[in-house]
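User: Fold this; tokens only.

Assistant: Input:
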Amino acid sequence: MKPANEGFRFDARYNHYYTGCVKKPMTPQTPSPPAYAFTTTVVIPAYNEAHGIATVVQRVRTALPAAEILVVDDASSDATGAAAAAAGARVERHPANRGNGAAVKTGIRRATGEVVLLMDADGQMDPRYIPQILGGIDAGYDMVVGARTRATQGDNIARRLGNRALDALGSYLVETEVRDLTSGYRAMRRSVIMEFIHLLPNRYSYPTTSTLALLKGGYGVGFVSIEGQKRGGGQSGQKLLKNGVRFGLIILRMISLFAPLRVYFPVALGMFLLGMASWLLNIFLLEPTRGLYIPNSALLFFVGSIIVFMFGLLAEQIAALRFQRRDA
């Protein structure tokens, strides 16, 4: 049996959402798309995805007939915008390429729905999970993330291990379990994400930032287990070297934005303990005749631990200012 926090499951017999494991109907059913108490805008950032954007838009339209579908064309050099418009999407185009995160922010700002559902344009996000994700919003969550299974959380072992490391660090920083911080498949209340939109970067780490920002701000974030799909064509813009650099920058950004003291304090404590060890070693073994003399190595660790700790306190206060509520 899956754990209770495994996500939301839609039971077509009762037109309701449940957490945890729910038995499926005995007879196959094809329920019509459920109605929600909120309006929805599906935001799809796209860059050079003319080969598959029409299929993505059509599949989303089938799953959400009444939703606004907004494709943000990030200055593609192909016919991405035209293909999306021909498929029935509303298209916003950047005059110059700004990055995936910038396209997401444009979509959130231009959306007319009360809830924004984010999807990628590469076909890796199956629209059949939309009812489960939006069902979480209907149940009261402020954000619901489509968390990929471990086997589909990246197309190679290095990326999967990196994603797991990010999840572990994120869980430590916000002191609660988080899953699949790099998943761009998510729904959120527009009024809530607008409070933190100034924190979102213009490139690829907006999923990590948005998830941790809402958790840090005390909002409800739920997770729905999904199976990631293979890319529907074209080439990924992510490369091994860039991923390594980006991974390091994301870690530094997570630490500085959300909980600096939870990293700086253990470092300061470790330096203090090393200083104590050096001092005691000098007193009892190396130079017992000099009494309580503090060697340079111990002094360096003691001073360093104080500096790191005070810097962590300052960084913590600056980070807290970023999460003060802003009037809309």
